[in-house]
Amino acid sequence: MSNTARRGPLEDLTIIDCTMALAGPYGASLLADLGARVIKVEPPRGDGYRNIPPFLPDHASPYEDREAGTDFGAPFAAVNRNKRSVCLDLKDAVHKDVFLQLCDQADAIVENMRAGVMDSLGLSYEVIAQRNPKIIYACVRGFGDPRTGESPYAEWPCLDAAAQSFGGLVHANDNLVTPAFADIFPGTLMALGVVSAIHNAQRTGKGQFLDVSMYDAMLSLQKSAVAQYGFTGKPNPAGLQRAMTLYPFDLFPTRDGRVALAAVQPHHWDLLCAAMERPDLMADERSASNAARLKNVDWVEEQICAWTKQLTRAQVMEKLNGSIPAGPVQNMADIFEDPHVAARQMLETCHPGGDNPDIRLAANPIKFSKTPTTLYQAPPTLGAHNAEVLAEFGIDMPVKSD
User: Where in the sequence numbering do the catalytic residues fall?
Assistant: First the structure.
């Protein structure tokens, strides 16, 4: 970290983060990356996501050495950087009061527990809002919260695989999609909802409750399929459809992997044919138009594959020279070496503490000209900031770290 000061367009906001695992923490991490002061409140056992490997070298057990900064693995680090950790037992009356005092000074609280869990602890939106009427209470639920709409599945647990299946994404791809879309996308929508609701609260003086259902988020991701069924009454067949509206818009084999080629405009096809040194394909009745290419997709695919198979990914990209939308299928090793990633500063480094090596994490992809953001806080060890945060909030009640 070259600069340890918190900064960004949301640096005036305070978020109390009670999320765990992936969906909620991802959304809260977006707010933290944008500069918000995010306080991660964890139970004495910590966020279970801390236990997920891989861990730093020579630290196979995540709880062996907290002082050395080793009580979390890579998945936790990815979605909890730029946050500080406070450990509170919300079943304890003293700790619960401390939590409420944190919420009294916050702009928003976010959580992703099952519906009714916070209510059962006496920490419902209604209880918190009575003390802080401007607060935004945002959550990710598998099937939503009864406050915004009853669901017959409201009490069911939900994880990424279930939400992808319910919401049509598995059908569209004939498989689960990675990374965990049904976690990441709802978390993103929650962050957007928080910023929108805070904007309204600053204007009206009134906070509100909002939720994002993982099922609903997956349905909204299928907007085109929803519209198609709404127009025709006919569902799309299962699996990715190679050629339904445009071709080529596909992956093609090379000598060392695959490349994506997309000729969505007539001139794109002409430019691809020129790069392939196949001007005949521009005039051939089987490939001269998009409609013709869709009708003769197998033959067109053969022509393109005959060219790409002779070349490496880099050679294909060199011959195209940015003339059409195209991209090599890259793994993470490729991405870490890509000059674009370096130029856009999309990898940032932080030190997790102790004798551990530096770790590299994905940077904030939203680039601001006036309010740049930074990776200023390494992923926190459990309860590492109890004393610091309580002093900052003016709370002097003793709180145990574990």
Answer: 183
* In 13-148, alpha helices (H): 23-33, 74-80, 93-104, 117-120, 125-131
Look-up: residue for tokens 């997309």?
262
**CA geometry: angle at 120 spanning 124 and 81, to 5°?**
65
Angle, in degrees to the nearest 10, between helices 23-33 and 181-204: 50
Q: How many CB atoms lie within 10 A of CB 365?
A: 9
Digit-coded pLDDT (tens) for 332-359? 999 999 999 999 999 999 988 888 889 9
C-alpha distance from residue 266 to each of 237, 259, 347 (Å): 27, 20, 37
Domains and CATH numbers, the chain: 14-221+366-392 (3.40.50.10540), 249-337 (3.30.1540.10)
Contacts of 309 (CB under 8 A, 6+ apart): 253, 254, 255
User: Among residues 101, 115, 221, which one has the least CA distance to residue 169?
Assistant: 221
The radius of gyration of the chain from alpha carbons, rounded to an integer in Å, stands at 25
How far apart (Å, rounded) are the C-alpha atoms in residues 34 and 50?
A: 23
Closest CA to 274 of 319, 328, 310, 317: 319
- DSSP string across 175-237: S--TTTHHHHHHHHHHHHHHHHHHHHHHHHS--EEEEEEHHHHHHHHTHHHHHHHHHHS-PPP
Sheet holding 326-328, edge to edge: 249-254, 257-262, 326-328
Pairing relationship of beta strands 208-213 and 136-141 according to DSSP bridges: parallel
Tell me the one-letter amino acid at 397.
M
Closest to 299 measured CA to CA, from 261, 243, 353: 243
Given strand 37-42, what is the order of strands in its sheet? 83-87, 37-42, 14-17, 108-111, 136-141, 208-213
282 burial type by CB count under 10 A (0-12 exposed, 13-18 middle, 19+ buried) = middle
> What is the rounded CA–CA span in Å between residue 82 and residue 345?
17
User: pTM for the full model?
Assistant: 0.90
Q: Residue 200 contacts by C-beta under 8 Å, 6 or more apart in sequence?
A: 206, 208
d(CA 373, CA 182) in angstroms, rounded, equals 26
Cα–Cα distance between 229 and 223 in angstroms, integer? 10
State pLDDT tens for residues 166-216.
999 999 888 998 999 999 999 999 999 999 999 999 999 999 999 999 999
